[in-house]
Specification:
With 517 residues, the protein is α+β, with helices and mostly antiparallel strands. 59% of the residues lie in helices and 15% in strands. The protein is elongated, with a radius of gyration of 32 Å.
């Protein structure tokens, strides 16, 4: 039976290609998302490890407020405490750091970067302290209220050169500065396509934050003690009333990396959900293909039963075909996904989010997850047709007509209505501040109920909607109407992917319209 299943799979190459395409599309999106996520996470891990390599301690305020959409906003750190930190034993250098809003205006009078959801625009401090995050690549550091330094990418995009006048908008309004230098962030021109306007500490505090305050202190030690001991010494030197805390370089690096991963995970989660939806749509195609296969091979399966094959053997033969197609399709889909990850990176670059990458991060876990998802969906979609194939009696080999495999429509109607009712209850509960999981279950319940109810309503719907077609197209329209109504299961299965696709388009269109309004 195993050899027979392998031969049947190879003999029907058209079905193999059709089924594999459905699997490849779904697993391609999934693996592409995994590879893209792992690549970006690896890139930013390396980036911030490089940027904070000379930072042994990090001082910031303990006072903060939680933001509505995640994250936190900390109070400023008084610059007056910087000298105290510099006098701590083991400290080589200490400098202030600010990450505030600052938008650079191009020579054409338009802001640099993408408007409305493009990469962020920052203002910060550039200093000659070894603990600083920026390195001069051209010109000099800013030194005065009229000096500004730009990151390399911003200078290139705005076609700025040393000596140009640069207009910057920040918390204190709009001002004009003279470009005195161009800098790099670690080894890259700009992180994530963001624009940076850099000032000296007094100008940055006054223009971006509040005079006399910075966001934090970046501190480099002399390596005479561990970072933990250095952080404890700094904490001991700072007065309690200042409400400051000291983190080690490793702690602040891990925290920043975690914040970046949290943001990226939101984006990747959306893509992963979309990928599973694509796999779900593909499962309908796979189910239809195997249902047709089971119907076409009804006499063949009956003949196998007549010469001694058991129900399980016939069912397993079809499941073996499904498993083979799942394995082949998932492997090809993983390869396609690697290319899609590069395409996704190119699309982000086109929108202004230029993400530096240090080579693709292809991890075994991504391949394993892709294979599990692809094979599981294929086997699950093939299970019911395989089960029906095993129920074919031996005497069916003598019949010229197909067996009627219609199920109990009454039971289907009851189950479908119950699922829809439960889904509606979930949707109503979600509108009354219930957890988001309740909303998800409600949507799933309504959708599952409609799918279960499909064969029961397909016949009357096809007859009703087909009347105009029959009237307009004559005999061909009548035949189309009757064929659609004759096999309601097939009609509903064919319509299910269209239903899901239209639902997704409607949902995203409504979401986009809501955001715009």
């Amino acid at each position: 039976m195993l050899r027979l299943a392998l031969k049947m799979t190879w003999a029907r190459k058209g079905r193999l290609v059709l089924t594999s395409l459905a699997i490849i599309l779904g697993t391609g999106f999934l693996s592409g998302t995994f590879v893209f996520r792992d690549t970006i996470n690896q890139t930013f891990d390396r980036l911030f490890s490089d940027v904070f390599r000379d930072v042994d301690a990090y001082v910031r305020s303990t006072a903060f407020i939680e933001l509505d959409f995640g994250g936190e906003q900390r109070a400023g750190t008084p610059i007056s405490a910087l000298e105290t930190v510099r006098n701590v034993e083991g400290v080589v250098s200490a400098t202030g750091d600010i990450q505030g809003f600052a938008r650079v205006i191009g020579k054409d009078g338009k802001p640099l970067g993408s408007e409305g959801g493009g990469p962020p625009t920052f203002g910060s401090i550039a200093s000659d302290d070894s603990a600083g995050l920026w390195s001069v690549v051209e010109g000099r550091l800013p030194n005065g209220p009229k000096d500004v330094m730009l990151d390399r990418a911003t200078a290139d995009n705005g076609e700025f050169i040393i000596g140009d006048t640069v207009r910057v908008i920040a918390a204190r309004g709009a001002r004009e500065f003279t470009l005195v230098g161009i800098a790099s962030y670690g080894d890259i021109s700009s992180p994530g396509g963001a624009t940076f306007a850099l000032f000296d500490q007094p100008t940055a505090s006054e223009f971006l934050l509040e005079p006399g305050f910075v966001d934090a202190f970046l501190i480099e030690g002399d390596d005479s003690v561990s970072d933990e001991v250095l952080a404890q010494r700094i904490d001991a030197a700072l007065a309690d009333e200042l409400k400051l805390e000291t983190l080690t370089g490793a702690e602040i690096t891990a925290e920043v990396q975690g914040q970046i991963k949290d943001v990226l995970n939101i984006f990747s989660t959306f893509l992963i959900v979309f990928s599973y939806i694509a796999l779900g749509i593909g499962s309908f195609v796979i189910y239809n293909v195997f249902s047709i296969t089971a119907a076409q091979r009804q006499r063949e399966n009956a003949l196998l039963r007549a010469i001694g094959a058991s129900r399980r053997q016939v069912s397993r033969a079809l499941l073996v075909e499904g498993t083979l197609m799942g394995v082949v399709g998932s492997l090809l889909g993983f390869a396609v996904g690697i290319g899609l990850s590069q395409l996704l990176n190119a699309l982000l670059k086109a929108t202004g989010f230029e993400v530096p990458t240090a080579g693709l991060a292809i991890k075994p876990g991504s391949l394993v997850n892709t294979m599990i998802a692809g094979v599981s969906v294929t086997v699950f979609a093939a299970w019911l047709p395989a089960r029906r194939a095993g129920r074919v009696p031996p005497l069916a080999a003598l019949r010229d007509t197909a067996l009627d495999t219609a199920g109990n429509l009454k039971r289907r109607v009851i189950i479908g209505l119950v699922l829809i009712a439960l889904g509606v209850v979930g949707l109503i509960a979600a509108s009354n501040d219930a957890p988001i999981q309740v909303l998800g279950l409600g949507v799933l319940g309504v959708f599952a109920g409609i799918l279960v109810l499909g064969p029961a309503i397909a016949r009357p719907v096809a007859l009703a909607l087909g009347k105009p077609v029959a009237a307009l197209r004559g005999v061909s329209g009548t035949m189309a109407r009757q064929n659609a109504a004759r096999n309601p299961k097939r009609t509903s299965r064919t319509a299910a992917p269209v239903l899901l696709g239209v639902a997704l388009v409607t949902a995203f269109t409504a979401l986009a319209a809501s955001i715009r309004s």
